[in-house]
Amino acid sequence: MTIQNYINGNFQNPISNAWIDNYNPSNGEIYGQIPNSSTKDVEQAYQSAKSAFKSWSQTSLEERSRVLIRISELLEDQLDRFAKAESKDNGKPVALAKTVDIPRAASNFRFFGNAITQFASESHESVGHNAMNYTLRQPIGVVGCISPWNLPLYLFTWKIAPALAAGNCVVAKPSEITPMTAYLLGDICNEAGLPKGVLNIVHGLGSTTGQAIVEHPDIKAISFTGGTATGAHIARVAAPMFKKLSLELGGKNPNIIFADCDYDDMLNTTVRSSFANQGQICLCGSRIFVEATIYDKFKIDFVERVKRLKVGHPSDSDTDIGALVSQPHLEKVKDYIRIAQEEDGKVLCGGQEVNLKNFENGYYLEPTVIEVPTDECRVNQEEIFGPVVTLMPFHTEEEVLQMANKVKYGLSATLWTNDLKRTMRMSSQLQAGIVWVNTWMMRDLRTPFGGVKASGVGREGGFEALRFFTEPKNVCIKY
Ligand code: NDP
């Protein structure tokens, strides 16, 4: 299947007619071609967005809202088609795409379609000076949205929906590894009546197509989700042009388990927070710290549960763990398992590639639990982004807090305890943008989402996203 760029409401080949192979992770086969777009394609997308901006930015909130909610409805109508496409492109179980990825993509459009009608600005009366200030929140213009491969349509739309709702026009690039659902979205946007040029989707490599978006002098804001190294590079390119930047980057999130927690609930959720989406979620709790008094019991129970997870073809309804996204990523994750052992880590289960009958060239890996001797080893410090978690005991609150914070990342943290005072103490001291207590990945789209330290700058979600995609302008009237 050949994917095309979506520019000015039309589907078109890349100007240079250069293409990239698209792989199916479940069998390792090439199943399509995607545009290897160049600066010229990005320029065309920019010009189309620029032409559409005047009208779209003046379109009433009711009309913008109507179009976004219509996109959401059409996505829901095509849930099956999109879920299968996402699974084939990414390797994730169809069941997961059907219950998480695509419903959430639809929710993103619905949420921001509604949120924009409630988005308000402040006014400040300068008492004693006979003056009134009010703040306009104006769309920025043409903005760039760049998203990763792990939750392809979910994260793509998490940026596009608020950008469009706020009245911007967009040049967007999904990951070249998982471009399919972004491509399919174009048709839905046309059907929903999104005016031509308001959204433009350009496919290609990060280092060329993505770079061209970031370098474009008139694309005034960049919303990026991806790796920390790429985020640092983008910041370096964008800073001298004074672009607005939202960077959602990597994570190495602690999952801290106290003996007083609700044990069964914790165990069920910890299996999920460790291995959902093959562990390829920036929010996965990849460092598990367990209070020493229940450490041995937890270790036995957890490993027993992990061994029961079924690694299988993404289309099988009983598959828990599908394929990793690509061969290079599989190699990277396997490398970390080797590094862990070199650093005296003990593999408690998993660690091996899985040869699925009839799909021997797919990128399958057993869910892996590694007991580590110290929190300072590389597998405990570096983001692996695969089905690998580390396990370590702790004795005191102070000790675990110190270990939890002693990484360069600060995206999310999970805490399992029924002690209210401890919850309050720890959640205020954990260095993270999101702290979940007795749950994981429970998302309310109104809340601020993002990380601290090397996990990024800025927040997405709710009005935070609408603030990012608008410029505040103060108007002061003397009377
Ligand atoms: P990458 O940083 O490799 O890529 C992310 C996106 O940026 C892709 O579309 C990529 O294109 C593009 N890109 C790469 N280089 C450039 C460049 N020079 N200029 C502009 N764009 C570029 O991340 P991955 O796709 O590998 O995603 C995994 C990472 O994403 C993990 O570190 C994970 O933690 C992080 N992530 C963070 C989340 C958060 O909310 N904090 C959520 C989900 C993931 P291409 O793929 O074509 O190279």
Count up the helices: 15
Q: Tell me which ligands are bound.
A: NADPH dihydro-nicotinamide-adenine-dinucleotide phosphate
Based on secondary structure, the structural category is alpha/beta
Overall outline: globular
As a percent range, the share of strand residues is: 15-25%
Largest sheet: 7 strands, mixed
For the residues shown, what is the average pLDDT? 98
Total strand segments:
22
Question: Largest beta sheet: what is the strand line-up?
Answer: 14-15-16-13-12-18-19
Spans of at least 5 consecutive residues whose pLDDT stays below 50 are none
Distance between the termini: 64 Å
Compute the CA-based radius of gyration.
23 Å
Helix content: 40-55%
Features:
alpha/beta, 7-stranded mixed beta sheet, binds NADPH dihydro-nicotinamide-adenine-dinucleotide phosphate
Describe the structure.
The protein is α/β, with parallel strands linked by helices and 479 residues long. 41% of the residues lie in helices and 22% in strands. The strands form 6 sheets. A 7-stranded mixed β-sheet has the order 14-15-16-13-12-18-19, with helices on both faces. β12, α9 and β13 form a beta-alpha-beta unit. α2 runs antiparallel to α4 (94-115) and α4 runs parallel beside α5. The longest helix has 22 residues, at 94-115. It starts with a strand and ends with a strand. The model has no long low-confidence stretch (mean pLDDT 98). NADPH dihydro-nicotinamide-adenine-dinucleotide phosphate binds next to α7 and α8.
